[in-house]
Protein: histidine kinase
Organism: Ohessyouella blattaphilus
Amino acid sequence: MNKKLSRTLLLSFIAILAGQLNISFYTSEFRISLAIVFILVVFFIMDSFYISLLMFLSGLGVYLTRVLVAYTQRNYGGNSWEVAFPELCFYTLFTLLIWIYNRWYYPQVKERPLAPFLPLVVIDYSSNVLELLLRFGRESFTLERQFGIFLIAFLRIFLIWLLVQLFVHYRSLLMRQEHEDRYKRLLIFISRLNEELVWLRKNTEMIENTMSTSYLLYDHLREQGFAKEYTEMALDISRDVHEIKKEYLLILRGLEVVLESENNMDDEGMYLLDMLSLLRDSVGRIADAGNTRMDVIVECEENFYTTKHYLLLSVFRNLMINSLEAAKKKSVQIVIKGERRGEYYWFKVSDNGNGISEEALPGIFLPGFSTKINYETGEVGRGLGLSLVSNMINKDFGGVIEVESSERGTTFEFTLKTSEV
C-alpha cells in the first residue's frame, strides 16, 4: 500500500470518529457533525492524500456508523438504513462538488486569501438542502429552514477558515523560530571557522620561518664543507616544507574566500548583549548535553555595536567553554562584567569552578597547552582555545588578557581598544 493511500485511510478513520461529534438540528435525524470540518481543514493544510476518496470513505463510514448505533439502540428497528440514507446522500453530493471544486476551481485561487473558502459555503448549503429535501420534502423550503441551513454552512466554513488561519500562523511562527535557530547556529559555526582561520594564518608564519631556517642550514652546511648527503638532506627538508606551505596556503585561501563571500552577503555586525545572549543559548546546549547546570549572569554597562562580531564571539565562547569544561561539579555560574574605561572596553569573565593549578597557570595561553584529558580515551585537548583568545585580543582588538585562579574559581580580565571593536 502506497503512502498516499494509507494516509487517506487513516484520515478517513479519524473523520468517521469526528462524525460522531454532532448536534441535532430541526429533528434528531438531521445532524451537523465535525467530520466536514476535519476533512476540509485537512484538505487545506496537508498534502499527499486523495480528497475525493477521503470524502467518500468518510461519508460511507459515518452512514454505516449511524445505522449501527441506531440499530443497537433499537430506535428505528429495521428502518435504520432508510433513516440514515439522506445523510449518505449529503456526503455523496458533497464529495461530487468537492471533486469539481478541487479539479477546476481551487488550483486557480488557492493563493488568494478568501477565494478558496467562499464556494464551500454554497457546497455545504447545497448538500444540506438535498438532505433536508429527502427528509421533509417540500416543507424543507420554508424561509426558517433555508436560512438555518445557510447559517450552518456559513458558520461551519467560517470555523474551517479560522482553524486554517490559526494553523498557518502557527506554522509561520515555527518556521521563523527554526530560521532564527539556524541563523544562530550559523553564526557560531562561522565564529569557530574564524578561529581556525586565525590559527592557520599564525601557523603559516611558522611554516615560512621553518622553511627559511632549513634553507639557511643547507647554506651553512655547504659552506662548511659537510658531506653532500647532509647538505642534500637539509635542502630536501626545505623543499618539503615549501610544498607543505603551498598546500597550506591553498586551504587558507579557500577558507578566506568562503568567509569573505559570507561577509559580503551580511555586512552588518552585532550588539554585545545580542552576542552574549546567543552564546548563553549555544553554550547552554553543550552544558545540557553534559548534564551540567550553567547560569550566566551578564552585567555590562554599555551595549556597544561591533563589526568584528565573529572574533568577539570566539573570545567569549572560548572563555565560557573553558569555565564549563573546567567545572568538576554539576553546576557552574559564569559572571560576565563589562564597562568602558577611557579608550578601552574592560571585561571580566569569572566562574565558581575548581580553578587552575599554579603549575598550569603560566602556560594556559601557550599554543598546544591543555589541562583537559579524557582518561577513558587518552585524548588530550588541542590547547588552542585560550591561545587563540589571547592572540585575537592582542592582534585584532589591541588589548591584553590576564588570568587569576584559585580553588574558588577562575577570573579572566581583558581589554579591547574601542577604536578596534
About this structure: Residues 3-141 form one domain.
